[in-house]
Amino acid sequence: MVNADSDVEELRTATVNLTVAGRKVCLRLNVPAGPTRPIDLLPLFQFVTDTFVRIAVDSAQADGRTISCRKGCGACCRQLVPISDIEVESIRRLVEKLAEPRRSMVIERFEQARQRLEQSGLLEQLRMPQRVGGKNVRSVATAYFEQGIPCPFLEDESCSIHPDRPLACREYLVTSPAANCKKPSAESIQCVEIPAKVSRSIRHLDTGKANGASTWIPMILALEWPLARQHISEAPAGTASVARLFEHLAGKPIPEARL
Hints:
By secondary structure, the protein is α+β, with helices and mostly antiparallel strands. It is built from 8 helices and 7 strands, in the order βββαβααααββααβα. The termini are close together.
């Protein structure tokens, strides 16, 4: 349930009442009422993601499970990370803002990863993720992990962009022994179940694509991926994008007017 409280300087404060994993949650979100590119809503999407993750962690701990993810344990940072085109732009901006020589080092890591993917025969598949579906996603992800390609932002086995990491990374936590992550399998890995995945829902937001396609994008190809740029005059209202996000999360229509 989403209700409007007030408008302040073109911001609309929305109260979002949800039931997540059997727990009632009330979120208060400051949402731009005017045209807003989805990239500018990413901090809000990160906040919602982190909220859902905290609920999932609390639930796991209540069941006696302990999160085994720790700084310095970077096994999962060699997995295939699916992102949205919104996050593609975010990654590009982040790299551009890095100071030298670190920026050149990170760009070189992306290039080294591309070369290894090309040598392994995975590159062309990853350049057409819309064709990778169903059981094929798992096989491609497994083949990718077997390459042992570290995330370009991995330093000392820790995420160097932790506050800005992709939503899919935020949503990935395990309670199984950390040592199991080096050779993951359905039997050896116990993931924390996230009740609602924002990382998937934001792929449905309009970012100005001509064909309106919605698909996942491999984060490792973010620097070469075509940007779906959208002029602010063509962008939907921030309230419309947020309503659409929660519509996908809830699985039912949420009229923008209720924001």
